[in-house]
Amino acid sequence: MLQVVKTTAELRELVRRVKKEGRTIGLVPTMGALHEGHASLIAAARAENDFVIVSDFVNPTQFGPTEDLDAYPRTFDADCRLAEAQGADVLFCPTPAEMYPSAEDTWVEVTGNITKVLCGRTRPIHFRGVATVVTKLFHLAQPDRAYFGQKDAQQVEVLRRMVKDLFFPLEIREMPIVREADGLAKSSRNVYLKPAERQAALVLSQSLFAAQRAFAAGERRTDVLVGQVRQQIEAEPMAEIDYVEAHALPELTAPHAVLDVPHLLAVAVRFGTTRLIDNVILDPRTR
After folding, report:
1. Cβ pair 149, 277 in contact under 8 A
2. Does the bond joining 169 to the residue before it have cis omega, within 30 degrees of 0?
3. Which of 21, 102, 227, 276 shows the greatest Cβ crowding within 10 Å of its Cβ?
4. Residue 177 CB: number of other CB atoms within 10 A?
């Protein structure tokens, strides 16, 4: 049966007992509003660990002043049902005051190009908030493995860097993007889309999949593939592009003119007031 935990003290005591028994812990950090994408992360954690903790916390420090913190969907009862159905042992749902007890906050920040490109360019405080809250969760849950989705690929690379640089004794597990039947990437923000915007948003996966097909057929010129995606999105009248870019993995460094190493091809686009992200990985080592 799922146990709901609201305080850091409760979670620490649970983790202490689990570790004393020699059991492994899988952590799935989320901001709630759980959907099938989150379900896939919880299921993977259940398959690979003895004990599974899911955090359900809308982290205020990763939202900018004009972003959707107050409107962000909160579906706690449904979250409990989904987490329990996927085999989670604990749902950790602290308050902001519980996670940020000091008037003067302490920050964890990953610097460099990896947090300045893509979403970092227009959301300058976002990854500092992510790194800080995930560091807190890692200390509290002491996971052997932590699970994240490829849809947030930049976030995954930032956290991989943080884990490496701060010597966290855990593995970051990146799970594939879960999509609707028509290709739209699952996202908690999809509920904001009006019907016409929802239909228009299909251009994201359609353009990325077209670039994947061109890559599989032998196209290796980065500017051609990026340009193809941009052109297809620009043809959709409801789409307002934030970025269409490729960056070399894993550090999200400047793209190579020819895709001779793995690259992340990523997009961020607004439809009405809703900003959506999506991506594919283009890897010349795979056929």
Report:
1. no
2. no
3. 276
4. 20
Cβ contact 16:139 at 8 Å: no
Residue 184 gets which letter from DSSP?
P
Residue 140 CA to its chain's centroid (Å): 20
Longest alpha-carbon distance in the chain: 58
Q: Are strands 145-149 and 25-30 parallel, antiparallel or unpaired?
A: parallel
Q: Are 14 and 132 in contact (CB under 8 A)?
A: no
Provide mean pLDDT across the span 158-162: 98
End-to-end Cα, the chain, rounded Å: 43
Question: Across the beta sheet with 239-248, what order do the strands follow?
Answer: 239-248, 263-271, 274-282
In sequence order, what are the residues at sequence separation of 6 or more whose Cβ sits closer than 8 angstroms to the Cβ of residue 25? 15, 18, 19, 49, 50, 51, 52, 53, 141, 142, 143, 144, 145
* DSSP secondary structure string for all residues of 85-96: HTT-SEEE---H
What distance in Å separates the CA atoms of residue 201 and residue 195, rounded to the nearest whole number? 10
User: Hey, what's the torsion of the CAs at 209, 211, 217, 220, to 10 degrees?
Assistant: -150
* CA 85 remoteness from chain centre: 21
Is residue 38 annotated as part of the catalytic site, yes or no? yes
List the 3-5 sheet strands across, edge first.
3-5, 90-92, 51-56, 25-30, 145-149, 171-175
The Cβ of residue 29 has, within 10 Å, a number of other Cβ atoms equal to: 25
Q: Which one of 38, 126, 247, 263 is the catalytic residue?
A: 38
pLDDT tens for each residue of 221-265: 999 999 999 999 999 999 999 999 999 999 999 999 999 999 999
C-alpha dist (Å) from residue 69 to 31, 57, 242, 264: 11, 12, 20, 28
Residue 141's DSSP bridge partners are none
Residue with tokens 């959709």: 236
